[in-house]
Structures are given as structure tokens and as C-alpha cells.
Amino acid sequence: MACIDLNADLGEGFGRWRLTDDERLLSVVTSANVACGFHAGDAVTMRRVCALAAERGVRIGAQVSYRDLAGFGRRAMDVPPAELAAEVAYQIGALEVFARAAGSRVAYVKPHGALYNRVVHDEEQAAAVVEGVLLADAALPVLGLPGSRLLELAGKAGLPVVPEAFADRAYTDAGTLVPRSREGAVITEPDAVVERSLALAASGEVVSESGARIAVRARSLCLHGDTPGAVELARRVRERLESSGVRVEAFA
């Protein structure tokens, strides 16, 4: 039987502004990527989401990013490796306080936005992220794109690696994500997202932007929490997976 973890980006608000419906999404997903204050999120939001996740038995992950609140962590930045490593560790440590207060812990790390895409190919930035994770906890799993420099270096450093896929993002023939700046980069048609989710979970394949079928072997599937109708779409995805015999559970 196929098995897949469902993760979503949560806690992406700041002060009175909220972007994601955290409480309802936490009733669907098995892992929560919690913003740690650098691209979104603040102390109150982090504490609230950790408490909700712990209450529902959802794994808490640190979603680390470049320090870019104004650009939501999606702007390209050049951060010195030593600084980036320290900031990654800092974000993990901040979230760990609230996770432990809720009776849980930070169970994994996932980069966000521009940092996520940068560490697919950039060895120096990927190594800095790995260093930051090791500073925080040398046993933390790292989520990332299959075949990325990040997962390669994390594995070499002894960190558990978890390859993930995106049902609502277009892929290139090389298995990388189509940049958001290009038309069609985000899949918005709900039925298409649901069927792509099933294909990724059951067969490890997805249709690229050119129409080619490419292999994307993933243990976790990301459902973006900031898309319109995210909660209902997440429910449809989970129901489709389970009705097709796919077991939905957090990665080991």
C-alpha cells in the first residue's frame, strides 16, 4: 500500500494579519510547516499553531527562510553562509520553545520560498542550511526537493532526508519547480490538483509543463495553505488518496 505524508505551510500571518486557516488545515494535514518569523509569523502565532498542532497530533516542522518579511521570503537574497547557518538555527530554536511548551517538539525542517529554490542547486547555501540544522539538532529530518543539493548534503551529514512533491506546482522536465514568475507555474484547477496528488502518491509520477511524465519519488506531499479554498482542496486531496487505498500518515 502506498503511503504519503501531507504537509502544509501554516502560521503565515503577522500581528493582526492572517493568511492561512491554521485550525481547519490542521484537521487535514499530518505535518505542519510553521513559519518562524523571518518570512511570516510572530511569537504569538507560532505559539498558537504549535498548541493546535500538538492537540491534534500533527507533526511540527520549522519552515526556515531568508529574513524577508516584506517579500514573504520569495525574493532572491545573497546571505553569507555563516550568517545563514546562524539564522536557520535561530529560527528552529525559537519554534522549539513553543513546540515543547505545547508538549511536542520540532520534528523536521523545511526551507521556504526563495531559500527552498536556491538550495536545489546552490551548494554553498545548501551547506549553510545543513550547518544551521546541525547546530539546532543533529537528528532533525530535512524536507526538500528530490535530487536537490540540500538533500544530498543533509544525507552526507547524517541528517534524515524526506523528499517532497507539490501537486499544485508545475514541474520542468528536469524535475524542478517552474519559477512562479512564469505563467502556469501554479496549478489552480482543483480537479487537476487532486488527480496530480494521487499520481504522485500512488505511482511517483507527474506530468511536466511540456507534457512529459517524469518520476518524482516523494514521501511527503505539500498542500499550500495560502491558496484560495485551501482547506476544502486539502480535504478533497486526502479523501481521494484514502479512497484509492493510499495511507495518509506522517513520515517516520
UniProtKB/TrEMBL annotation:
It is an enzyme of class 3 (hydrolase). Keywords: ATP-binding, Hydrolase, Nucleotide-binding. Belongs to the LamB/PxpA family. It catalyses: 5-oxo-L-proline + ATP + 2 H2O = L-glutamate + ADP + phosphate + H(+). Its EC number is 3.5.2.9. CDD domains: LamB_YcsF_like. Forms a complex composed of PxpA, PxpB and PxpC. The keyword ATP-binding applies. The keyword Nucleotide-binding applies. This is 5-oxoprolinase subunit A. SUPFAM superfamilies: Glycoside hydrolase/deacetylase. Catalyzes the cleavage of 5-oxoproline to form L-glutamate coupled to the hydrolysis of ATP to ADP and inorganic phosphate. PANTHER family: 5-OXOPROLINASE SUBUNIT A (PTHR30292:SF0), UNCHARACTERIZED PROTEIN YBGL-RELATED (PTHR30292). Gene3D superfamilies: Glycoside hydrolase/deacetylase. Pfam families: LamB_YcsF.
